[in-house]
Amino acid sequence: MQVFVDSVRLDKWLWAARFYKSRTIAASAIEAGRVHVGDDRAKPARLIKVGDKLKIHREQEHIELLVRGISETRRAATLARLLYEETPESMLARQTAAERRKYYVEPSQNIEGRPTKRDRRALERWRET
Q1: Which residue, 31, 50, 56, 57, is most buried by CB atoms nearer than 10 A?
Q2: How far apart are CA 116 and CA 107, in angstroms?
């Protein structure tokens, strides 16, 4: 017998939609203020329903989405993707951020370590002139 629900806890939904690996991690992110329902901070036990707007901040990602389905169980990623619809603005922002990261060169890559004795002497000669 399958029971249909019209609302579910926020932490359980985030876990079922595969945004976080466990409900504990989802609850921690919610408590830290990284998940907003509408424009308000939420608690893990907040009930969400179809049509709610969520904002999720994960590391460098800022995802804005609409809840399209409710599930209490974690299923395959293709089925989890049916539970929400990402806004076009959010998708565009994530794509541009990914492009920026792709072409960004970390400044620390050019650092080769301590200067050698030869480098130090060349620097001293340059300073004397």
Answers
A1: 56
A2: 20
- CB–CB of 79/16 below 8 Å? no
Strand ranges inside 1-129, DSSP E:
7-9, 35-37, 40-41, 47-49, 53-58, 61-67, 84-86
The pTM of the whole model exceeds 0.90: no
Q: For the beta carbon of residue 12, count every other beta carbon within 10 angstroms.
A: 21
In which residue are the tokens 């595969």 written? 18
The confidence score (pLDDT) of residue 1 equals 44
Q: Residue 58: CB partners within 8 Å, gap ≥ 6? A: 19, 29, 34
CB 29 within 8 A of CB 10: no
Residue 35 is which amino acid? V
